[in-house]
């Protein structure tokens, strides 16, 4: 009887070991498949986010270009240029585009085109994509500055483009 009990214990022990040996690889392979599936899902999610961000950037650049074209073709932009210039045909040394006005400096004399006084809508809105500023994506101030630069024969460099203003400065013609 005691021997039968020992044989049963040995049989159960061997059976348990065999069961463990058979199940462990299955569990490991399932864990590997689960990990691979999770990695594939994470990669697909990252890829989808990347594609979406790229599309948003392309859409924003298209809006920016459309806005530049609108300002370039507008007679109001030429009126702004006439107002900030000195009337002699000399280009302003600096042009600064703000949300509510455009200023030009010629021979240290500042001239201003005020949007409120001329009943022009303000250029508000630096649009944000995914939490970071994208200067060339949809910035009405930069679009107007680029249009002014194109109209004036691309004689200016954009020295600064930020949330509060865009600074255009005449390109240097006299070098050291």
Overview of this protein structure:
This protein is α+β, with helices and mostly antiparallel strands and 176 residues long. It has helices at 2-73, 75-84, 140-151; strands at residues 94-98, 101-106, 109-114, 128-129, 132-133, 156-161, 165-170. Helix 1 crosses helix 3 (140-151). The model has no long low-confidence stretch (mean pLDDT 84). Strand 6 (156-161) and strand 7 (165-170) form a beta hairpin. The strands form 2 sheets. A 5-stranded antiparallel beta sheet has the order 3-2-1-7-6. A two-stranded antiparallel sheet has the order 4-5. It is rod-shaped.
Assembly category: single chain
What is the H/E order? Answer: HHEEEEEHEE
Strand percent estimate: 15-25%
Q: What helical percentage do the residues reach?
A: 40-55%
Note poorly predicted spans. Answer: none
Shape: rod-shaped
Features:
single chain; 176 residues; alpha+beta; two-stranded antiparallel ribbon; 3 helices; rod-shaped
